[in-house]
Amino acid sequence: MxxxxxxxYKYTVGYAHGTYVMSGDRVAxxxxxxxIRIRTDQGLEGWGEITTLxxxxxxTFPDGIRIALKDLSEALIGTDPTNIGMVNRIMAGTxxxxxxxxxxxxxxxxxxxGKSLGRPISALIGGVLNDRFPIYEAVPLAAPESxxxxxxxxxxxxxxxxxxxxxxxxxxxxxxxxxxxxxxxSETIIVADSNGGWSLASAKLAxxxxxxxxxxxxxxxxxxxxxxLAHRGSALPLVLDESIVNHDEIYRAKYEANAVSVxxxxxxxxxxxxxxxxxxxxxxxxxxxxxxxxxxxxxxTAATSHVxxxxxxxxxxxxxxFNDWTDGHVASxxxxxxxxxxxxxxxxxxxxxxxxxxxEHLFTVGRx
Length: 368
What we know:
Layout: E1 3-14, E2 20-22, E3 26-28, E4 30-40, E5 45-51, H1 62-76, H2 84-94, H3 99-117, H4 121-124, E6 133-134, E7 137-139, H5 144-156, E8 161-165, H6 170-182, E9 189-193, H7 200-209, E10 216-218, H8 224-231, E11 238-240, H9 248-255, E12 261-265, H10 266-269, H11 272-284, E13 288-292, H12 298-309, E14 316-318, H13 322-325, E15 341-342, E16 360-366
Parallel strand pairs: 7-8, 8-9, 9-10, 10-11, 11-12, 12-13, 13-14
Antiparallel strand pairs: 1-4, 1-16, 2-3, 4-5, 6-15
Helix pairs in contact: 1-2, 1-3, 2-3, 5-6, 6-7, 7-8
């Protein structure tokens, strides 16, 4: 099988709950999503997605990703997409870094591999261990009472895992976290996520004020080094995210930062291949697994679901169905969650059918 063409599309991804607010006054109402389709000489197609969360969440942005996708796609014409090791080798030899652009290509190749074998991706990456797994929702940064009310409303819909957006004034963040804990019950899992927004001093104050609350704290400062210093002396379980961008840093997260979990994102790691490797490493290190991407709709939700479904139930901490948060429904709003739980599609590859008419074509590399 050979890649004959790669189509690059865009689409607008809106936030289902109005406005998404993070630390540092970073606000999202709509995002610019990028979708790719890899076509082959045997008629099989594979789909991938990369949707950024603004331009200052992580060091990437849509136009830069699309330029990189052009170079990567040109290098891959004529390559067997089911030889995923070779695909990644060619991409590494074409562009250093640029993992955010490599990610949708890698996902699309897994989609093709699954379709070529008539098996879902989950069957190819270890097999389903979670027929039904709990999902989380993010609670946008707001007044404490508003965040508590958000949790009460979503708990009524079956959601009982939440990622609180904090990272501004530490005194306000302590109040936000306390109100959120009070809105839950003994089964509620809450992660207070600063997205690297606190200064070292603010992080120290926030963690001291949250002492005794049943919460995890995620990425208090921008760098791993500052997260280590901020967390020193705290008993709160630490999750690292934005500063962990390769497998080596997972060891640092455990043995230097004393983190209990790492939030894996396809875009940071370059796709499904490296995310699976990182997931397996976390499990072997007896750490909890969180898996997602920056943002997205049906396609990235499907990819996430396959990783979540093949993760040990006792290891899975947080995973979302982004297509519940957004209106990025380019595959008939599938996969679909139910009462706070998700499952992986059982069809070949990603297990979804993308509706091309909902996408805006940007350019094609190779045969049209």
